[in-house]
Design brief:
The protein is an alpha+beta fold. The chain has helices at residues 2-8, 35-40, 46-67, 90-96, 145-149, 169-172, 180-189, and strands spanning 12-17, 27-34, 72-73, 101-102, 108-109, 117-124. The chain has one domain. Helix content is 32%, strand content 15%.
Length: 193
């Protein structure tokens, strides 16, 4: 499954135990794409392009699971208002799957891409082996860039979503990730991620 998703365009793939969140769907397949890579493809709207790629990868996952006789569910970005969908705690599952750590900006911080990823989750009944890799980096330990640059002060003990103006400074200026120095070039050419 991981190989199939990588070949289809996923940058990061992990498997997490979802049994503490859901009774039927006990496994979560967590998929991430780099917004920097999407930017490099010349897309005009990074959010739309990232969401389309995640929907495609979610579709690939669903087809693979169906072909192997297993149930699945998960939101598609193109059907965000679907009332029947099962909402997965994507950030928590991404951390559990070993894709990264939870940052001070309340986003998943990956070692390779920092917080510059879009993530989706497909829940399944298929008993896949969970990722046991431990993320051994702590980018936020001595860093407060996201807290210091936030114009509205949304970062406290919890994320105050209603205060967020989606300026994306906490994502663009986070020094974590190998792609950090390439992001500014992308951000000045395209609209913010």
């Amino acid at each position: 499954m991981v190989r199939v998703l990588r070949e289809a365009g996923a940058d990061l793939v992990g498997v997490a135990d979802a049994s503490s969140y859901f009774e039927e769907f006990t496994t979560a397949i967590v998929i991430a794409v780099s917004t920097r890579r999407v930017c490099g493809r010349g897309e005009k709207n990074l959010m739309v392009a990232s969401n389309e790629l995640l929907d495609f990868l979610g579709g690939v996952t669903r087809q693979w699971l169906a072909a192997h006789g297993h149930g699945y569910t998960g939101a598609l970005f193109s059907q965000e208002k679907n009332a029947d969908r099962v909402n997965a705690p994507t950030r928590e599952l991404a951390v559990s799957a070993g894709l990264g750590v939870m940052g001070k900006n309340h986003l998943v911080i990956t070692e390779k891409f920092g917080p510059r990823v879009q993530i989706t989750t497909v829940l399944t009944t298929m008993p896949l082996m969970r990722d046991s890799r431990k993320v051994d980096f702590h980018p936020c330990r001595v860093c407060n860039v996201c807290i210091e640059i936030c114009p509205t002060g949304v970062f406290s003990d919890s994320f105050e979503r209603e205060k967020c103006i989606q300026c994306y400074r906490c994502i663009l200026q986070c020094p974590a990730g190998m792609d950090f120095y390439k992001v500014e070039e992308c951000a000045t050419i395209k609209e913010p991620i």
